[in-house]
Amino acid sequence: MTRRFIEMALAVAGAVFLVTVPWSIPALIDNFWVSVITEILIWSLFAASVNLLFGYVGLLSFGQALYFGFGMYGVALGIDRLGLSFWPAFGLGIAAAMTMALVSGIFAVRLSWHYFAIITVVFSLIFYFLAVSMKPLTGGDDGINFTLPPVFRLDGKAIGLTDPTFQYFFVLAAVSLCFFLMYRLINSPLGKGFLAIRDNNLRASLIGLNVYALRLIAFVMAGFLAGVSGALFAFFGRYASATYMFYQVSGEAVVWTIVGGAGTMFGPLVGTALFIVIREIVSSHWEHHSLIVGLLAILSVIFAPRGIVGLWNGWMARLGERETVKKAPSRLTLRAEP
Amino acid sequence: MRDTVLLLAMNGLIWGLIIALIALGLSIIFGLLDIINIAHGDFFMVGTVLAWFSLSVTGNFWIGFLVAPLIGFLLGAIIQRLVIQPIHGVAALSIVATFGLSLILQETVRITFGATPRRILAPIGGTVPLFGVDYEIYRLFAAAVAVAALAGFFLFLQRHDRETAIAMGIPARRVYVMTFGIGFALAAFGGAVAAPITTVDFRGGVDVLPFCFMAVIIGGLGNLPGTVAAAVLLSFLEGLIQSVADPTIARISSLVLMSAVLMLRPQGLFGGFTK
Q: ipTM of this predicted complex?
């Protein structure tokens, strides 16, 4: 049982589970949980945008809800006001989020740590209040509803997200693609630059990295991830609302990320899944489920300060150590052979 | 016109003094323990609720002025030992831990106090003519109490804290417990003073929190008098802007102003890092 084997097995099991969700979950529990899992996928992408900045570049953003909100409103306004069809509205949402991230990033990434956290929350508050006050356009706290346009037409038949199974696979495909892109980004030279900045930005600038530009790129990429998740969530809920731009939404994503494991690829997914599953299970039995969520957040940072995935990686590393110790003699004999 | 300007500017000034108390609590927790306290707005909220409870139990509003900071201090000390101590001042973890704390405090208040916002009648009714405006007496009184509390803090507690920090012989652990307790007590006291001006609501801390953080940052991290000055200045400006525009626009303009300060003077408006 090597680490590689265990992780491969887990990955395969996870992939099989995700692909069979629309059939296995209704058979095991009920249809409702398919939509819960859809929601988990969408929010985990949002948490991934926090993770990209905090876990890989060392910038703690408390304002990612702004780009989530822009993704949402791009879709909702595109469909409801501009009469766009599915893909242009999707594109508009993502473009709006990335543009906003670029504009605010130009200012925000000049700052670090506390100041960066505060300026991101300030920016998101500015637009939250704007969205609340521009009620005719945004619908304020009540939000705006829209009817879903079809995703594409096949033999004259419209196929859209109104079909829960199609919706699930659409979200799964979009989220997987984004996670794959993020994986490629982190493992590219650009991603190594991010890590260098996270670990020591002075040293990074001394070896010739343009810290400002790299941070800005990461910020816009994070805006992209948040924008995609916001757009997906607008499609999923068929509406957009200013409440999703409030700083508490950003804060929740920070918590999910850190509990799951910041700086790990799947930490945000694990954290998001944990919190949403608990919320869904407990809230149907007990009105005050926030108590459990709060307690869980506290316990997890006390007992797993590097997050759940961090804890797991620690176990795996220990497993690996034991194996290398055992294998050491055989390597020696191999070398001794003529 | 002149009257409304004066009225709103006064409101802003007085609210700023109360916010200054709360932000001061945030500032010492931030400065001394390196804890980013997301639950600080809820500490304030707990203060307003304690004021409401002590009024409804004893029938005497003023008991709340004693009860809120005392219970606040005790809660703060307990929370520090149970929740804050184990995370060893890692700022990122403190966000998660205090977020959890915030949920627990809000939910506990929702269970015990209920979800409906309530109002407390000002214990000192009536108005007094001030610069040609009839001004509520309680607000003036609240301002005086806030100023007295601030003065008391700077005269006694701050000196005490600095001395303990310098005198290495005193267990650091006790200083941490004290600091967190005092931070909670300041916010809870601010809540008790503000209770008749604002509404008592389990979500009452949500709006206060960003404002306090801004005061801490604009005042300069670790600069306690700066925090107070920034809180008063920000709130006063917002009051002034409110007299010509609606509250949301006023809030937006103060946020824009804040961004400008952050960009141009990240060390705070009032000098450097004095931790």
A: 0.82
